[in-house]
Amino acid sequence: MDWGTLLAILIPALLGGSGLGAVIATNIANRRKVKAESDKIAAECMAILGETFKTQMAAMTTRIDNLQAESDRDKRTSEEAIENRDRKINELEKQVKKLTADLEISDKRNKEQEKRIQEQDHQIAVMALELERLRLEVKRLIGGGCGDQT
Length: 150
Prior knowledge:
Elements: H1 3-14, H2 19-144
Helix pairs in contact: 1-2
């Protein structure tokens, strides 16, 4: 037997069963009943809050998982794009090196050809002078050569 029940019995007995004793005993009993109902309501509220939090946590966990998956996909896509870009850069660098080497070879050939052209131009000029000298010699020989025999 707890203190509340004991008081509910003793108070009316001490007061002689008067109405005041009954009111006090009723109030004590009601107070226990209200406390029990209050505890029950608090427990129900806690259960509802617990379920609400559980539902919200599940939704947040799902959202976090979805965002993580999306982030992982974006990361893979970015990494692939970077790898493709790097591969293209390497290919272009190889092409630039090849073209630069080809250009250097072409420049060297052009310089050699220019040198040969200059040499040939010089030879042509020398030959033109020699031709002119020979023409003059032929003219001299044809024009006045018959009477010059001594």
